[in-house]
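Suppose you are handed only two things: the residues of a chain and a line of SMILES describing nicotinamide-adenine-dinucleotide. What would the bound structure be? This form records exactly that question and the answer produced for it, so the two can be stored side by side and reused later without any lookup.

QUESTION INPUTS
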Amino acid sequence: MSTSAQAQKVLVTAGAGGIGRAIAAAFAAAGARVHVCDLDAASLDQLRAQLPGITTSVCDVGDRAAVQAMVQQASEQLGGLDVLVNNAGIAGPTASVAELDPAAWEAVLRVNLTGTFTVTQCAIPHLKRSAAASIIVMSSLAGRFGYPNRSPYSTTKWGLIGFTKTLARELGPFGIRVNAILPGAVDGPRLQQVLQGRASASGRTLAQEQAAALANQSIQRFVDPADIAALAVFLASEAGRSISGQALPIDGDSQSAA
Ligand SMILES: NC(=O)c1ccc[n+]([C@@H]2O[C@H](COP(=O)([O-])OP(=O)(O)OC[C@H]3O[C@@H](n4cnc5c(N)ncnc54)[C@H](O)[C@@H]3O)[C@@H](O)[C@H]2O)c1
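ANSWER OUTPUT
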């Protein structure tokens, strides 16, 4: 696709790093016009330097007033909106329900659930003006299984599936498709840190913890963020036009969340 008037206009939340950055880069490579919001202003500066043409806003998706201004700015800078990628989500604490800090519970719900709701609600009027709109919601393997000691994360990621399926039915009549992506363990520094933490706690080696994590999967490889980005680009494309209301795992056929 060229950067012509037909180029897709795409908003990616929390796209200055991690999976969101890979998604922003993949849409840009496919010829889309991309706007990225993130909390981290310095990383957004780097992103604009690395991917010229991308526009950005500093925004916490948990802050309703900031989101309203950000979505308006994104739509103005892109010249409309065809695709919303609700990628923002935080991991939250590692603690049992019995021991969880109630403030930490609220903090995860504020970003993962309410943030996704707010960005989506603000984007709907813009998406309704698109000829081929779609929304992607970032759930997780933790939205498919129980995840011991990660209850706020797992609860929000299951909640986002309900949000996706409900929204798909509400927006289908307007020609807007809505799908959730459920990544498994994604390769990168965050995963290595998690595995290192498990190794320190268990007394096993990093390699043993890595093997134990992969033993949950039939495909012996952690997920590459580029693979998730390719799925997002496909779902938002013409080729995905009959797919809506779906929760799509991309996790090497994982059989548990931990
Ligand atoms: N990394 C994984 O293994 C994995 C697996 C399954 C699902 N996910 C989901 O994928 C999404 C992205 O995960 P990631 O690991 O790439 O994230 P990450 O922790 O690498 O963070 C990506 C970006 O999110 C931004 N961010 C954090 N809170 C924000 C907020 N309130 N408002 C705006 N931006 C904010 C950060 O500044 C950062 O640039 C999340 O929803 C996550 O739950 C991740």
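WHAT STANDS OUT: Confidence is low (pLDDT under 50) at residues 1-5. The pocket of nicotinamide-adenine-dinucleotide is lined by residues 14, 16-20, 38-40, 43, 60-62, 87-90, 111, 115, 138, 140-141, 183, 185-186, 190-191 (CB under 6 Å).
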